[in-house]
Amino acid sequence: MTQPTPKKPLRIGLIGAGFMGRAHANAYRRAPNFFDLPYEPVLKAICARSEGTAAAFARQWGFESAETDWRRMIERDDIDVIDICTPNDSHRDIAIAAAEAGKMVLCEKPLARTAAEGAEMVAAVEKAGVANMVWYNYRRVPAVTLAKQLIDSGRLGRIYHYRAQFLQDWTISSELPQGGAGLWRLDAAAAGSGVTGDLLAHCIDTALWLNGSVKKVTAMTETFVKERMHQITGKVEPVKIDDACAFLARFENGSLGTFESTRYARGHKALYTFEINGEKASIKWDLHDLHRLGYFDHGDDSLTRGWRSVHVTDHDMPYMDKWWVPGLQIGYEHSFVHQFADFLIGLGSGESAAPTFRDAQETQEVCEAVLASGADGQWHDVEGL
Amino acid sequence: MTQPTPKKPLRIGLIGAGFMGRAHANAYRRAPNFFDLPYEPVLKAICARSEGTAAAFARQWGFESAETDWRRMIERDDIDVIDICTPNDSHRDIAIAAAEAGKMVLCEKPLARTAAEGAEMVAAVEKAGVANMVWYNYRRVPAVTLAKQLIDSGRLGRIYHYRAQFLQDWTISSELPQGGAGLWRLDAAAAGSGVTGDLLAHCIDTALWLNGSVKKVTAMTETFVKERMHQITGKVEPVKIDDACAFLARFENGSLGTFESTRYARGHKALYTFEINGEKASIKWDLHDLHRLGYFDHGDDSLTRGWRSVHVTDHDMPYMDKWWVPGLQIGYEHSFVHQFADFLIGLGSGESAAPTFRDAQETQEVCEAVLASGADGQWHDVEGL
Amino acid sequence: MTQPTPKKPLRIGLIGAGFMGRAHANAYRRAPNFFDLPYEPVLKAICARSEGTAAAFARQWGFESAETDWRRMIERDDIDVIDICTPNDSHRDIAIAAAEAGKMVLCEKPLARTAAEGAEMVAAVEKAGVANMVWYNYRRVPAVTLAKQLIDSGRLGRIYHYRAQFLQDWTISSELPQGGAGLWRLDAAAAGSGVTGDLLAHCIDTALWLNGSVKKVTAMTETFVKERMHQITGKVEPVKIDDACAFLARFENGSLGTFESTRYARGHKALYTFEINGEKASIKWDLHDLHRLGYFDHGDDSLTRGWRSVHVTDHDMPYMDKWWVPGLQIGYEHSFVHQFADFLIGLGSGESAAPTFRDAQETQEVCEAVLASGADGQWHDVEGL
Amino acid sequence: MTQPTPKKPLRIGLIGAGFMGRAHANAYRRAPNFFDLPYEPVLKAICARSEGTAAAFARQWGFESAETDWRRMIERDDIDVIDICTPNDSHRDIAIAAAEAGKMVLCEKPLARTAAEGAEMVAAVEKAGVANMVWYNYRRVPAVTLAKQLIDSGRLGRIYHYRAQFLQDWTISSELPQGGAGLWRLDAAAAGSGVTGDLLAHCIDTALWLNGSVKKVTAMTETFVKERMHQITGKVEPVKIDDACAFLARFENGSLGTFESTRYARGHKALYTFEINGEKASIKWDLHDLHRLGYFDHGDDSLTRGWRSVHVTDHDMPYMDKWWVPGLQIGYEHSFVHQFADFLIGLGSGESAAPTFRDAQETQEVCEAVLASGADGQWHDVEGL
Lengths: 385, 385, 385, 385
What we know:
alpha/beta; Rossmann fold; six-stranded parallel beta sheet; oxidoreductase (chains A, B, C, D)
């Protein structure tokens, strides 16, 4: 049989072997099966602090080698792209080192713990001129991409309202410790913030993408459990993250935003929802049924007008021609596959896939304003880049 | 203030003071508040077997008098219309006597225990030339009336499928007795049949109205609890009704029907549902959220096509201009108010409101074929009238 | 037949013949049919500015007489209770005059345009010692009353979050005029405020009832359509109401509140929703399916834990033993019937039905703080009574 | 790093490169990433009639070689297992040849066109003593597996009703041709039957698994579009498949079954639903939201009893510990991954994963009875194996 020209390899070094490391590794592996891509991902190396973890992950996912020191991995010249899946406190150092070494840099969200860190990272990748992207994966859930298409096509008309929530309930127990493996998200030193950087960052990224820039915000934050045992120090220590955060926003386009996130909403595991109300139509979506998009079109005749539940599985839906047949849904992990495929397609065409570090820095700036407002109760303008 | 011409009184004699008696009395009382009607209902007399019941009901609902013998009530010349809300075994006798006395006759569904009884009743009211109607109330739930309008306007195109269910769970306990007050529906002598006459009769009436005549059926019936204490005899007696019944049907229009009813569907109280699939559009409805209509229009553009949940409360919806404002739902009892209003409007215009006894007899014929098939396992043609 | 002791009459004078007038009149008429009450409502007089309107309303609802001047109606000594269903700008004057005349006073919500007006009204009824109540009807939707019972029984445990919305879309068109019949809600002089007094007042009343007092708030308000033709002056005039308002709140019990209301949420007619997240369980409800309550119980075994959709129709549910049978839903108007029945029952027992004017004044104080914050962007404490 | 003992390779030869070929290939590739398995799948060869198709599929999915003649592939001694994803008319010949060659045999559903063919296949694999399995994948959707666990644990008690539907709408257009690539499902010669073998077979497999054997059935079948252009012959030819089929059933356990399938239900793409009503609890599920299970427990206290929507994503749910975190859903394709993982685990432990050919033959027997009843209108007993 005739062989087509082999594809260019893209040699990946993944840092971090946790939940997100798995999601990214799966994306590298799945994308070539379902997409026609200009690059062939090569799983060159996985880096984890523990040798055993790294080795096991390498076997499970087919990485060629395992490392335990990320600085060493960045030094390797057989790696083209560094993908950062570590806790937030190491994003800046790894990203800057990788950029300085001329590697492309992918970074799990949020970009950084603070806007200041993020700004350094943006500067580093832009100075190095390396491809870069942040894994705000929800943009590539087909129903969310469809929402973007509907908005861009003008179907909604002038936008009046944007509202989003990200509700979880996994930290209600005061027995849950903070810090260390699996729980660094409760440790402000590691995470930077609580739900703001972890969950609202997702809501904000989507909002900026779908509805444009945020001008100013006022916020309310709360830490319900004031002290938790710290897994690393072994001591009961104050909890310094925000357990819950809600904020009001004014967008550049004149619409009003309401955002809320918490890890104390009993009954919700990962209920990311958004709704957009326009003059002519409205859209809503939620992560617990991510394959559906709610759509209301005021242009429908009045006798049959109602919220439509669009089952986003037909082949003309974003990304869905790559998967199965109408009616058969995909899941969470596919958003990473789509983002990675888009990254490779972007590399091939020279147009980088969004969100870049610069795009993601805008989310950092909103988070910064939100946390500042949570602290002083004032409205805060969102700083420009 | 100038008084408009007073309306013609319509003097009502209601027989039966149970659940249905209340629903009808409420309809007489509310219709004039919400509709502009050519007649003024006058609650002349209530008849119940027990004097105390009749008196209490009269006070509660404002009837002018109370009777304990329906034959005596029919003899009264100050009554224009007899409304029958008794168990099924007395429908025939009362209806025929009332017709012969020249009264208009309203009858709670099912028309009769058997098609033979029903035929006598049709003959009686038609011979007497009196107005008559059967209370298949679900036709007048606004969402159901809307379904009829959408079908009649051709929106669905050729119909392929009609399916209906009526699921309840109230007779699962074998401790529940049969017969007597509140439980005559479990006694074949009083009810004629079980779920077929009680619940499937509703499904069939709606189906005939929305989708036309049924040609033939094949059915499966079951009695899960074989014996129950009989409240009247005080003895454990065989249960002779159908606890559950499902049937397949072929409609005259070439579509296929599937119907099912049971009182053993744990978790459902009064879950009457129907769905109609046409070439161009589909419709679905259920009684547990009766103010909504599901509608799918294949003509919608493919990116936003989906089942619509129409909240049937706007003023251009059937009957809804009479009630509140958009977004505010009405309930079960309103279907009776609508039907009674339509009856009075029909009287005024000389066009009788459906379903008449003759219309309802078609449902009896389908029930008869269903029960016959349940007994012998064969397909049965539905007899003409 | 033996007549029981006749009930005491309660002679009602209703002021206002609009949408709310009908809802109240219906409540007077329906309550005695479905509830066993210590008083017999007598529909003594309806007052509307137009003689024709008053006369027609009297005929439709069976009032004995019609008035066109509310002061004259208050002077009548054959009236026990004055029920105020006029636009907000006349609530104070009518209520105070009625109280001074020794009448019981019922008032449609919001109590007043401002907290200052409300305070005068509270003082007047308390000084006169007359029974008084404000028609925050949603407390008596059975599912909402059930929510109250569940919370009071301790099922939710410590409360973390309370969120509510009231979303409508009826004023999006800039062609819609303001002021005058049917549109006084858009006229700040008549209404006092926009969505805050009209819609958020409902959300706040329920929240105070279910979750206790609010300590402080920060708000964002917006008027999307800046000018509208005024129906009374005939001129294009500035719109001075809030078209949309969102606010963040801190409750006395330590929980966080988020509230939002708008008349620019395309696709929603009267979507009042609330959700409460407690340590052990959560509850949610919405007005578009008012007969259902969402309930999540963390105590359920993990394999079958999930949000329950409780169909609030069984006879052990609040108020539902008065209506039909399990599975058959009631609607919007029934909340008024329940509130009126509770008022009469309260009169009989000497315990006044909530919310009284004093209760409703707490909602006024929250609204006042919200509007102040919307104006200056600061957090505002809610003033005590 | 220390290498663990390498896993035993399992060398796979896949026949068929269509939709199902992709679903199976994906299962081989993903299972080792997410499960700890005793065998390492080796994608040895793909067989497709067209050389180009086979080569492209091999590249896309990483098969080592490509074949165009399935007989040749079976002859290869470097292949352990033959997986059949061809149209139904070749299942028998391939399976028997593979079994006779001593290969393990996996077969896409339905097992065969007819019960007679199926019986030969069962005999062949059992005579050869080779591992065998049929890809009734829906058993391994976590929510469906959970349903099985709940039933087996006795939570439902005595079962009264089982109902299932599989509704599609893709063949409504009479312009759609029959036969050949992508459309062999409309050609009775290739498919054996229409919706009965294609869709009801799924419903029946699940039903037999969850609810035990079916004793007898009565069915109604219909072919709405009588003639279609045949893609292979190029002529308009009669359509000989069943476009729609509904049947009533009696199970061995005394419960009643209703089943329906069609490709003419406008608005439904792949709406496989089932509901089971037991004395103590009920369960429902549908493929359009496959990550949820509906559950109603009559044992819940009456004030909060309602249908629960269980979001089947927590780590204690079947298979879900292998995937992401609570709240994040998986999709259709995962059911194949699970089944393949179970097959390998079964091989390792010597216990073969269900459904085997013998298990799947019971579904063939039900289909046979259904089609016979569709033809003659009589109740048919289901033949034993």
